[in-house]
Amino acid sequence: MKKVIISCFALVFSLNGYSQFVIESGATVTMNGSATLVLQDVDLDNAGTLNTGTSTIIMKGSDSNDITSGGATIHNLSIEKSAGQTVNLLDEMVISNNLNFGTNDNKLVLGANDLNLEAAATVSGADADDYVVTDGSGYLNKEYSAAGSFSYPVGDAANYSPIESNFTGTLGAAAAIKAKVNAVVHPNLPSDASDYISRFWDVEASDITTYSNTLTGTYVAGDVTGTASQVKGASYDGTDWFYNAAAAGTNQAIGLVDDLVADFSGSNFFGKVDLAMLLQGPYSGGTMSTNLTLPLTSPYTDAPLTVTSIPAGVVDWVKIQVRDATTPATIVSNHSAFLKSDGSVVGEDGTALPLLKDANPTGYIAIYHRNHLAIRTPSSLDLVDPVLHDFSAGLSMAYDDPAVSNDAMVDLGGGAYGLYTGDANGDGYVRYTDAFIPPATFINSDALEVFSILGNSSSGQLSGYYDADVNMDGFVRYTDAFIPPATFINSDALKIFSTLGNSSSAQLKENID
After folding, report:
1. C-alpha span between 361 and 195 (Å, rounded)
2. Cβ(218)–Cβ(265) under 8 Å?
3. pLDDT of residue 64
4. Helix (H, G, I), strand (E, B) or coil at 391
5. What does the alpha-carbon distance between residue 499 and residue 491 come to, in Å, rounded to a whole number?
6. pLDDT-based confidence at residue 15 (cuts at 50, 70, 90)
């Protein structure tokens, strides 16, 4: 068997033209001590056995070169070539101690091959023009003996886009995390994302239980479509997107993943909320009526949404307002959704939870209806992994403003609570008559709003979708009406009067701020 022992301080191979340092099949090269093998414009092609011990291989020269490790573990690999040159990996390679980028503008190109860093291995010298190119199918893989952090110095052929991993978990003997970057828009990007990056990272962990990883992906400014501040960390598990701890940094998408295999990118935050609520106007006998013919476009202009059809069992459109988790008076975003007859609040498909684009991971939630008094949650909610918040379950489920004399919701009987109806003019009050509160507050009558929309006629009638239809039966009436043989149309003005406890001077105010 052929055997070569390299024990000198530095052995330099430099040949004119195309050249290789070849270890033939059956041959063995052993590097002793702190030996250094300098390959000057020379490929490393190992088909035999290469033992590097604690030694260093340095790739130098003015041309790009290839490495075929042949299954050898390289202790130290240093890339110190002229600017613009690459070292190309032609098979899977293992580094046990250090990968060093020793000069400017050098790249290690993986192609279809993985680069494996053992648990003790580090990377030095990586920066905007010195990094590992992973735009093929090869990954940069890092083994771990303990949980912690590591920055994967990866990029595509033109741009450096590292991703930092900071993970916790219980590690097995083969614990590892590998990563690669793809310089394209994720193929499953949410269809209504308006702010996103044309870049995503594949991140795969193995042999780690109770895994939780905070990822920080650094992208290129030119990657952004839309507004960079709205581009927050988002992970995709092959079925759905998740926005745990989603945040935006300067040219960074930040988020938490707990799937062992996930794609990580940046886009608008899409939270979710699980709500149930009741409206006094259409409520009767434990459910709400669905008498209205609803428009395909939401009536809330600050939460625009148009659908192709109204889902079955829908009572009306509602507006979900996300408010800041620290300062609940601060509005973060508004979203249109549907309220179903059983009280569930759903997204545009009539089944799924509403998606909250550009919300925050946590926040207070306010609910608005066009002719009922708005309410909000008494505390902030988790908008990433939501649990049901049922306003109808009791008065304590809605914020109670100590400056407002009335409760936030009306007792509907049978242990159910709902939003007060009667705000026909949408000013946040229910009044049967006009009122003036010195020094400058004038509250308009909701009953007069009904009267006005009917052309100031006590016997007038409208059918259709109107805010003045506070009982939500599909008609606007100032007085009751009977249409033979069996149609009875209830007065909306009298519904307002009834909501106020049959008092013409009483007043209700929304509990919202």
Report:
1. 17
2. no
3. 95
4. helix
5. 12
6. very low
- Give dist(CA 182, CA 193) in Å, integer: 19
Do strands 252-257 and 247-249 pair parallel, antiparallel, or not at all (unpaired)? antiparallel
Express each pLDDT in 94-122 by its tens digit: 999 999 999 999 999 999 999 999 999 99
| First vs last C-alpha separation in the chain | 84
Residue appearing with tokens 């925050």: 360
Strands (E), 345-400: 345-346, 355-357, 362-369, 372-376, 381-382, 389-390
Residues 217, 233 contacting (CB under 8 angstroms): yes
Residues 212, 162, 239, CA angle at the centre, nearest 5°? 50
Give me the DSSP letters along 474-498: SEEESS-EEETTTEEE--HHHHHHH
Note the pLDDT tens digit of each residue in 305-319.
Answer: 999 999 999 999 999
How far, in Å, CA of 373 to CA of 301, rounded?
Answer: 18
The residues, any chain, with a CB within 8 Å of residue 487's CB and separated by 6 or more, are none
Three-state SS for 130-198 is: EEEECCCCCCEEEECCCCCEEEECEECCCCECCEEEEEEEEEEEEEEEEEEEECCCCCCCCCCCCCEEC
Strand residue runs (E) in 291-391: 314-323, 331-340, 345-346, 355-357, 362-369, 372-376, 381-382, 389-390
C-beta contacts of 245-249 below 8 A and 24+ residues apart: 245/214, 245/361, 245/384, 246/361, 246/384, 249/216
- CB count in 10 Å sphere of residue 118: 17
More confident residue, 32 or 387: 387
What does the block give as tokens for 507? 């007043």
Q: What is the pLDDT of residue 136?
A: 95
Q: Rounded distance, CA 256 to CA 460, Å?
A: 59
Residues 6+ apart with CB under 8 A from 452: none
| CA-based R_g, the chain, Å | 33
pLDDT interval class at 84 (50, 70, 90)? very high
Place 5 in a pLDDT band, splitting at 50, 70 and 90.
low
pLDDT of residue 1: 46
Q: 322 forms bridges with which residues in the sheet?
A: 333, 365
Task: Give mean pLDDT, residues 418-440.
Answer: 91
Task: Tally the residues of the chain.
Answer: 513
